[in-house]
From TrEMBL:
It comes from Rotaria sordida. This is TRPM SLOG domain-containing protein. GO terms for cellular component: plasma membrane. Pfam families: LSDAT_euk. GO terms for molecular function: ligand-gated calcium channel activity.
Length: 221
């Protein structure tokens, strides 16, 4: 039986479901599960028995030999390598990704070949808008020195650039040198200006360069 307004008795109109934007974790997980986004780990040293090497031997990846998680046959022929290359690694599933309490996103993954393009697309989907300007500011992690006045001017200037709408800032993401000043500048400008947009600062570094305490903390997320 139908009522006069044409709606079946006993039924109710259901409001349209509002679509929500996928979270960072959902965006990454989708690409990981389809094997489009992969991880990689250094294979120069291994936990496998028989790899008789001093545990405190420094690896080109930035970690000590004993800090490696690889369990296969080590690529001992590359232990004298002077430059990092993708052939020093072995592929693995990307498992370290998430979002910190403060909102910062993170991921440990391979950035060779098509993987980097996929990672960029994930960032674009998460931010929603593409950048109109990308500023890359690397270097200065070691032997870095400035006068107080120059350091203050640099911090204020780079902070203003990084917090400008539609600008992406690329750094090492490390708490040292230029990257540290950028972080301070961004924090200061964010507090002083009530911008309606989010500041986008992307830190990119080798996993082994990140302090061990930070690596362990990210693994627990």
């Amino acid at each position: 039986m139908f009522s006069n307004d044409g709606i079946s008795e006993g039924c109710a109109l259901v409001p349209p479901v509002k679509q929500t934007k996928p979270t960072w974790i959902e965006l990454v997980k989708k690409q990981v599960e389809t094997r489009k986004l992969n991880g990689a780990e250094c294979a120069i040293y291994s936990k496998k028995e028989g790899d008789n090497v001093h545990p405190d031997t420094q690896c080109i990846c930035g970690r000590l030999a004993r800090e490696h998680s690889y369990t296969g046959d080590p690529k001992i022929e590359f232990r004298s390598a002077q430059k990092w290359k993708s052939k020093l690694t072995t592929p693995k599933k990307a498992t370290h990704y998430g979002q910190l309490k403060g909102g910062a996103r993170f991921i440990r993954c391979d950035v060779e070949n098509d993987t980097f393009e996929i990672l960029v697309q994930i960032i674009v989907d998460d931010v929603v808008d593409k950048p109109k300007l990308i500023v890359s500011c690397y270097g200065g992690a070691q032997y870095f020195s400035m006068t107080d006045n120059l350091e203050r001017e640099f911090m204020n200037g780079i902070g203003q650039v990084a917090t400008t709408k539609d600008v992406w800032m690329l750094t090492t993401g490390l708490n040292s040198g230029v990257s540290n000043l950028i972080g301070q500048g961004v924090h200061r400008n964010t507090l002083l200006n009530e911008n309606t947009w989010k500041t986008i600062v992307i830190g990119m570094s080798h996993w082994g360069i990140i302090p061990k305490s930070t690596r362990e903390a990210l693994k627990q997320q």
